[in-house]
């Protein structure tokens, strides 16, 4: 089981007891506004999501790293963070980073704090050489996290994502392992 810690947070693989917290997040229309493909409508759908995360955590050649974010002091569930391997080559792996949290925790720095720890883990413990992520351009909070992490904007795609019957722009960011260690020398 992967368990990472920051000053305020625990970022860890899922356990069965996470179901109610996870369901509260992934069935929340506001929290999942930009991720309708992940949003669930029933507890059973959320259970499938959780069991997939737990199953992946137990695989020897794991390609999906989905973590719950918990506040250390209160044991309160904040949301989700993780990455999926999209390329596995001799040079190393390229992964896609994702995150979403409960609205009551927006703007408190939890995503940036958790992401720094997850990125540090990915680059130092896994054979990862590049992290990619992106969001719908109007999701300024998500893009702000990418910028705070020192990620580099690689592209802006016009009318690229269909959301609620509207084509919206998408931005894409990246961070290479060597860029991360240059930015955060000594951060492990």
TrEMBL record:
Q: What is this protein called?
A: GNAT family N-acetyltransferase
Q: Which GO terms describe its molecular function?
A: acyltransferase activity, transferring groups other than amino-acyl groups
Xref: InterPro entries: Acyl_CoA_acyltransferase (IPR016181), GNAT_dom (IPR000182), N-acetyltransferase (IPR051531)
**Which SUPFAM superfamilies has this protein been placed in?**
Acyl-CoA N-acyltransferases (Nat) (SSF55729)
Recorded source organism is: Clostridium paridis
Looking at the record, the residues that make up the N-acetyltransferase domain are 17-169
Specify the domain of life of the species encoding this protein. Answer: Bacteria
């Amino acid at each position: 089981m992967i368990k990472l810690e920051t000053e305020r947070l625990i970022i860890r693989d899922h356990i069965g007891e996470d179901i109610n917290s996870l369901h509260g997040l992934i069935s929340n229309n506001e929290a999942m506004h930009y991720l309708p493909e992940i949003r669930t409508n029933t507890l059973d759908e959320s259970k499938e999501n959780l069991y997939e995360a737990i199953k992946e955590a137990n695989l020897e050649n794991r390609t999906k790293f989905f973590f719950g974010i918990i506040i250390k002091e209160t044991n309160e569930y904040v949301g989700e963070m993780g990455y999926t391997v999209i390329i596995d080559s001799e040079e190393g792996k390229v992964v896609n980073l994702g995150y979403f949290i409960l609205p009551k925790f927006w703007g408190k720095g939890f995503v940036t704090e958790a992401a720094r720890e997850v990125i540090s883990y990915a680059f130092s413990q896994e054979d990862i050489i590049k992290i990619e992520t992106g969001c719908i351009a109007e999701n300024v909070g998500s893009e702000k996290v990418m910028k705070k992490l020192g990620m580099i904007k690689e592209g802006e795609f016009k009318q690229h994502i269909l959301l609620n019957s509207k084509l919206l722009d998408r931005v894409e960011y990246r961070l290479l392992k060597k860029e991360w260690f240059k930015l955060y020398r000594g951060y492990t």
